[in-house]
Fold these 3 entries.
Entry 1:
Amino acid sequence: MDIKNEQSMEQAILETAERIFLEKGFALTSTTEIAREVGCNQALVHYYFRTKDNLFNTIFEQKFKMFFELVFNLEKLEELSFLDKLKHIIESHFDMVRSNSKLPLLIITEFSRRPEQLNILKEKLQAIPERLFEKLNAELDAEIVAGRIRPISLMDLIMTTVSLNISLFLLMPIAGEIISLNEIQRQFVVEHRREEHVTLILNSLRP
Amino acid sequence: MDIKNEQSMEQAILETAERIFLEKGFALTSTTEIAREVGCNQALVHYYFRTKDNLFNTIFEQKFKMFFELVFNLEKLEELSFLDKLKHIIESHFDMVRSNSKLPLLIITEFSRRPEQLNILKEKLQAIPERLFEKLNAELDAEIVAGRIRPISLMDLIMTTVSLNISLFLLMPIAGEIISLNEIQRQFVVEHRREEHVTLILNSLRP
DNA sequence: TATATATTTAATAGAGTTATTAATTGAATG
DNA sequence: CATTCAATTAATAACTCTATTAAATATATA
């Protein structure tokens, strides 16, 4: 409603669609609802994006890439020790998931229910991490050889980090409801887990 | 089709519905499809369960309870040390998630998208864990006081265990596709992570 | 201003969904 | 065997959703 002059209709549709898709997923979101919330005719959604699939993919690919690029944005950590670097990675990843807390579920559900999506993004993703991985991998190996860290693969470290960070936000709505936490208590748990994830992982690396 | 004599139609509908709901979630599953796969008329699904919601809730509640009861089925661990007990819990939980690998996603999506469900199950769930928690909690505290384990709450331990175990199966389909793992390689990763989760958690508990 | 182009809307076809109803078939029992 | 009740089906009402089309309106351009 009357956003028209502030920003383009196309943009308004994109933003509203993103919000609703993140909230309800692809299947439960209708172009009719998007139009209603934007305050425009339903046909306009199809005028700009032709199909609901198109609209979804536009948003999804953009978010998905953003998500992964943020994860692997590890510049300016040169001077840190491996463990400090790792601490920083865990915390940045945590913060990034926290500020996009509905995205992991969307990625997981849409991929497991419409797997064709994967092929589109496969090659785009395979490119990103390689350089960074090699660098970190070398450092990790050096620490292991020096006996300062137990033998472990970088892949395991990444899986652990990602698992802990995303699960917190996947489980929080359910667990918080079951054990009746209010908003402040939930934020407290989130803050506490942010520290715990670092402690847990770093502690576990001791030989 | 022609399952009719081997088991009741009602049962066949339940089982087929369960399979399809687990695969595609509530929204993407239609009673028409369930009937088609069972090999019966679509009205029959409604004859036995009246509404799609009813059918789903019947299945969902049963699975949900089963899931949680399995998790907290910790009898016959009396003679073990705390760490051995913990190892056993992590591994049992892992095995249970592995053999119900599509259930966590269903629980998470249906709860975050149709939260009314939660209230139905809230009190049923609050009852279960208390006894077990108190026992384990006491043992954990004893270990901490004795200086054999770093200070940590049982809640944190449980969250970590659940997070790691369910995330593996949530992420595997995506990650496995992106880095192109075949079925055997995936099983290998799963086996490896089963050990890693135990190592990781037990290691991290050292003071 | 006249004309072309882009944006927006109303209307609707066509497909699919849930749920109900009435009719049909099957099984069981007196 | 006839009757009763349960199981099953065919038909369909009432929706909702996506996508398209043609008409209306706004904007830009010459």
Entry 2:
Amino acid sequence: MAETGSQTGSQTPRERYRAQVRTEIKKHAWEQIATAGASALSLNAIAKQLGMSGPALYRYFDSRDELITALIRDAYQSLADTFRATARSGADPVALAHALRRWALEDPQRYLLVYGTPVPGYHAPEGITAIAAEIMATLLDACATLPANPAPTPFDPHLDAHRTWADGHPAPPAVLHRALTFWTRLHGVLSLELAGHFTGMGFDPALLYTAELDALLTH
Amino acid sequence: MAETGSQTGSQTPRERYRAQVRTEIKKHAWEQIATAGASALSLNAIAKQLGMSGPALYRYFDSRDELITALIRDAYQSLADTFRATARSGADPVALAHALRRWALEDPQRYLLVYGTPVPGYHAPEGITAIAAEIMATLLDACATLPANPAPTPFDPHLDAHRTWADGHPAPPAVLHRALTFWTRLHGVLSLELAGHFTGMGFDPALLYTAELDALLTH
DNA sequence: GAGCTCTCGTGATAGGTTCTAACTAAATCT
DNA sequence: AGATTTAGTTAGAACCTATCACGAGAGCTC
């Protein structure tokens, strides 16, 4: 929620006030997004909630898109922080998976803002890709601690030859593959659950999630 | 694209004209969605493209949301048709998987309109859930033809006890589980690819997709 | 502390959107 | 042919994003 990642120490009073208003704007923005989705986010409505009128918000965010980008960045950072905090007490993929699900269910629209439908032309700014890389690194670390029992696949050589995303991580290709499937499979269950595609089907999404997690660890 | 599913035979000229304008509206709507996303869809812009002005569209769709709902329904139906056509020449999960990916890459925003971020309050109308059930049935049929080698999991009994989504399909729980993971895993890779989360990572998403498909069949 | 400067918030305005309402004109049905 | 239904129009209300010019005040400098 707070301006995590930017320098918060020793600011002028004006900068402090500015930062506080910015986070207040974002707080109300998250409330709107949680209840009506990101597409319904209205700067005007936020301004009214803050007791100021319309164009004042443009002192704090250049545009609606810039506000949304800031929200995406904060959401990413929140996930990265959650991952880092979880990994601090033992780099365990299982703990990471459950932390991911908790984080997602805590605010489904926040998860979907990060991993859901993007605007076709949208390109994430530099700061965001860096956070994504950190999340990937934490996941790789955790997967590297697992006993190396996954059978080699025809995909592994290609993955070994294209490991720019691993960013120098010394994991063998089998671990890279495991980290990737860890991501895609959990996201597969989670995103369908959050989007409501399991409602009315009867089964418990949490059990499917843990079943996928089990399969990830034992195969 | 066409009004698949509704009765198209023997209409009055007025009904015919009405149906034709409706599909023309939807055609332009899809173009807008493909280039700017569903949130940027503008009834005004569509009307101008059709040479008529603004509120005329409300003769054909009660609201913007109703138009989008119709688009979602058509997209679902298009996927169901693709699945049915693929299954007609042998109920093969591999063929189904490749048909799914082709269909998704053909129009990423169409896939994301169905499986992407929904509006929080949105509830799919009856007609749509019926199509989803048909897609599920086709998938279950295909998975039932596979050699029954998947090892039983602790999730299987729960799935056997909550099989309302299978809608009377006589598949054993292992097949239900396989169909479910088939769906979630392929969606996991596909949705992340379409949302652009693999861009810049280096590897080929198509190979990851087939790798997941392989894992689905051999384990 | 006095004065300068910079910034915050304002109202006005332009141009966009969805959607309703009243009216006209044309096509269809009886 | 006459009555009725329907398509499309313009006008307008209520939103929205975003820009501009202005006034008031907070903060920095001397």
Entry 3:
Amino acid sequence: MAVIKKERKPKPDANTTRIQDPEGTRRNILEIASKEFALNGLSGARIDEIAARTRFSKRMIYYYFGDKEGLYLRALENAYRQVREGEAQLDIEGLPPVAALTRLVEFTFDHHHRHEEFIRMVMIENIHHGQYLEQSNAIRELNVTAIDHISRIYSRGVEEGVFRPGLDAVELHWQISALCFFNVSNRTTFSMIFGRDFGAPAQLERLKRNSVEMLLRFVAKDEAPAER
Amino acid sequence: MAVIKKERKPKPDANTTRIQDPEGTRRNILEIASKEFALNGLSGARIDEIAARTRFSKRMIYYYFGDKEGLYLRALENAYRQVREGEAQLDIEGLPPVAALTRLVEFTFDHHHRHEEFIRMVMIENIHHGQYLEQSNAIRELNVTAIDHISRIYSRGVEEGVFRPGLDAVELHWQISALCFFNVSNRTTFSMIFGRDFGAPAQLERLKRNSVEMLLRFVAKDEAPAER
DNA sequence: AGTTATGTACGAACTGGTTCGTTCACGACA
DNA sequence: TGTCGTGAACGAACCAGTTCGTACATAACT
């Protein structure tokens, strides 16, 4: 409803000595807030603490984000956007199906591992029953393309006769996600309970290789070892 | 400040038998607290809210559990204990390796599904970097036996020549856990993002079958479709 | 009687959100 | 070129509601 007629900024190019930098302010606040929310959860995070860590005052948080939940929602969207953008880095065009799937799983594994903050935000959001994800129409758009990769790889694999038909791309994505997500999300408790560092490089390599193998064997054309 | 006349509860009257039941009080409090913590997390849960839902007053919580974190710790231990006890139900003795593994995965899948509260507590605890699990020496003891099943099945499978050697029981357990845990922990966001109800019975059956197949194919003796 | 168990009222600290006023860049204009 | 009006950007202090934890009184049991 706010019709902007001011147009106070005459020259968008004039970034000579901008002392006032609303976009930068927003970014700085969001960056800090993302860390705090990922670390402490929605109710655990403290607005005063976030403010203290930014270069600005609490007033600015409310000025730009309205309230705590608004800030959290933006942090959530921010996390999804960052990760989805990172996924665009993956290039599997031209690779034969098996190599492509291998690379996809390895990439996903590493990618999740690099973005623990995102993993934590997703966990937190699940704790909240997706209450905030639901409010964000921005996030869903980002994700429709998430199964594109696996979908294309799988189709090609079936066409070429190396993958068995009848499988579902979304379910394959689900399986890859499960293996890669769990590795980050539950590493702490798993390591504690079994007295073994599941974050150690060598161990991670093993888990990654296992994940790749699981997927490859699952989609492979040859018969399953046991028919139920 | 309005001085409110103390309206003491009318005496319980002719209560012949035990009116004081410390163990029952503890149990009642712990039961309610477990639900609240699983629902709202440590910082999200409210002591007053927990007290209101019990048959007792907030005073009793502090009397029996010391403070909020003490109560949370007990709730966490309670969740682990309940689930581990449930796992003892599984009987795979005498089954051939493939059938045993099948049943183990199916059971784990269903068991996790039935104990969402436990799943949520584990998620919450991971958010806290296992800070409270660390304090509990009771929990670790419960879990050393958790890999016993998979370990025995796998050994037997290798001996009988149906499973390939060189795999690690703890890693197998890790893989089974990943698939089964994720199904509960991330169902909400996953369903939202892909616009598909991953909690629907038919869908669950598919996911369960996929999980079983993944494990069976992973341990199967036959060669992998792709050697890296 | 003395110990255990329980409820009620309350306080100190915390926390999300607001109020009010100041600073600063920028352009109009003398 | 210097001054001044204007609105966006921002900070310190404050407010009202919340929340953990406790003091005190009292009932029940041994």
